[in-house]
Amino acid sequence: MIVSLVGLPGSGKTTVGRQLARRLQLPFQDSDQVIEVRIGIPIRTYFEQHGEAPFRDLEEQVIAELVAGPSCVLSTGGGVVLRTNNRHALHRSGPVVYLKSNPDELYRRLRHDQSRPLLQVADPLGKMRDLFAVRDPLYRETAHFVMETGRPSVATLVNMIVMQL
Ligand code: S3P
């Protein structure tokens, strides 16, 4: 069984995923980390050198491999839901949790973070709002349930997720 976390960049997928994995006594996997190990450079650099499409191809391949592998908690990149194959693969492989956050709050959190290639634009707040508008329906479609982040602590979120599984 693969327990997946989806949501916008900065929504806490990695932080919550690690603690959830510990709690469920499952290995933790992060598809972005798997990709970075494979390409040997930061994703941001890869984006700059090759553009988004080759990254999405790699991401799709890595997701297909991970969902075919042993049980784990899987934290995904924010754009994973853009590909239909990924949405189906994650949904079929076990419970998918959408960590839903307000785009304005995410922008405040990521303002100084240089590692998010999609936010290195003139209007990152507008960009985050656009990402939310496009992706929120896709996260909902992929997930079995939605957890509002924001107020609850990571520990509380993990408890709430465990109760839903
Ligand atoms: C992306 C989010 C990133 C990473 C890549 C693309 C996106 O992951 O996969 O930079 O399209 O939202 P995080 O959600 O962990 O930042």
TrEMBL record:
It catalyses: shikimate + ATP = 3-phosphoshikimate + ADP + H(+). Its main location: cytoplasm. Mg(2+) binds at residue 14. Gene3D superfamilies: P-loop containing nucleotide triphosphate hydrolases. The keyword Metal-binding applies. Its EC number is 2.7.1.71. The keyword Cytoplasm applies. InterPro entries: P-loop_NTPase, Shikimate/glucono_kinase, Shikimate_kinase/TSH1, Shikimate_kinase_CS. GO terms for biological process: amino acid biosynthetic process; aromatic amino acid family biosynthetic process; chorismate biosynthetic process. It is found in: Cytoplasm. Monomer. This is Shikimate kinase. The lineage of its organism: Bacteria, Pseudomonadati, Pseudomonadota, Betaproteobacteria, Burkholderiales.
